[in-house]
Structures are given as C-alpha cells and as structure tokens.
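User: My collaborator sent over this chain with a note saying "see what the structure looks like." That's all I know about it. Can you take a look?
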Amino acid sequence: MDYVLQLVLNGLFVGTFYALVALGYSMVYGIIKLLNFAHGDIYMLGAFVGFTLLTVGSGALAGGAGIVALVVVMVLAMIATGLVGLVLERVAYRPLRSAPRLSVLITAVGASFALEYGVAVTYGPSPRAYPVTIGGGAFDFLGARVTYAQLVMMAIAVALMLALDALVRRTRSGRAMRAISQDPRACLLMGVNVDQVISRTFFIGSALAGAAGVMAGAYYGKIDFLMGFIIGLKAFTAAVIGGIGNIRGAVLGALVLGLLESFGTAWLGSQWRDVFAFAFLILFLTVKPTGLLGERVTERV
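Assistant: Without extra context I'll predict from the sequence alone. Here is the result:
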C-alpha cells in the first residue's frame, strides 16, 4: 500500500504541471476552436524568462531569499508570457480567424518553431542549469515520501487553478468567455467586445503556462529550448481526455494522465511511459470521444 500511495502522489504531482498547460489549450479551444500548438513553447519561454530574471538578480538570492525571489520571478514570468500570448494572438491568429482551420493549424505549428528556435538562437542549444532550485528535505505521509518541493509546487498550482475557476465562473469576464464559447456572433450583437475577451483568454492561458515553466525549471534544475514539445503534447492529451474546452475537465484529464504515467512507469519501465499514456488516449477516445467531462456539440453553419 505504501508503494501504491507513492505512485499516486507522484502521479498527482506530475499531473499538476500538465494541468497548468492544459488549461491554456482548453480555454483557447473552448472559445475560438483553435488548437494552439505553440502553447507548449510558451511554457518553455516562461522557464527561460525565469532563468534570465534569476540570473540577472542572482545577488538577491542569497540565504533564505531564494524562495521569495522565485515567487516574484514566477509572477513576472507570467506577465511576460501572457504578453507574448497576446502578441501571438494578435499577429498570427486574429488575421486568420475566418480562414480555414487548416491554415490556422499550420500557423500554430509555425509559431511553435519560431518560439523554439528563437530561444535556441538567443540562449544557445545547450541545456541551462537553473539559478534557483527548490531542494530541501522530505517527510513521510502514510508511508509515502513527499518532498517539500513537491508540496510547494502543488500548492502553487492548485491556487492558480482555483483562481482561474473562480474567474471563469464568478466574474463578468468569465461570463463573457463562456458566452463567446457558445455563440460569438450573438455576443457581438449584444455589445460584447469579442476580440478583447479572446485576447484576455490568450493572456491568462499563456500566463499559467509560464508559471508552470518557472516551476519546472526550479524543480528539475535544467531547461532547454525543446522542453515545451513533449509537455505540449502531454497537456493536449490531458485536455482531450478531460474534454477539450472544459476547464475542470482539463484539470481532471491532467491528473488522470499523471497517474497513468506514474503507474505505467512502475509496471512497464520509464521507456514505455509515453507509449502507455498515448495508447490509453486512443483506447479511451474509442469509448468516449468527447472526453470525461466533454459534451457532444453540433457545429453551426
């Protein structure tokens, strides 16, 4: 039982990283039906923004100020990646909003490559060590080992996800997002500034991905310009499992994916982790194509 609990905790921890990135996929798809494949690279960009800020301010990281500085840097990285998301939406996606979906999809792939290799040119292709890492001790929880770093990361991720859920469900801006996801044309007739709401959605989703990038860099201690590719695929998979377009479904799908990877690694070995996760996705979609919390919708013409 101790071993099973350890696998569950490890899976939940990995799932929280996937959830922060998957939320951006679901938010954007839920409103404008766009698969933003550059979103994983926003996560990577957030890690490098944090790396830059921590390197420049390395003199302020001595002693116990490291964790406080990391939180401040994470907030700044969220703002920076949110602004990048705004620019990406305005320059790459908004002009193609009425174009065929294949054109927008190709543009998203091009934006992904532009971000990846732009960072590679700026920082170099070699991995970089993060200036601040969350190490420290651990404690036993019902026989399972939990590190303080995992506890801090999960607490921050859960707080961000709860804040987003409250924003979407309890604020005027959230009501506008939900209304546009239902019928953007009717929202225009009702006086809703659709472009502004879509831009705000890109900002929030990109900011969450940036926060996940900083946390990943601080936890794993190493970043590189291709780190967003795999987690982008995993986050997209999580969003599909949960029901893409559904905020809570994205979180649920991410946690399920994290648990699948944890148990799959234990049973089959780490080299089969990704195979196990994507095979489950294929099997799951044959049974429930709409995802765990997704709903079958009819396309309007």
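A starting point for your reply to your collaborator: The first strand starts at residue 128 and ends at 129.
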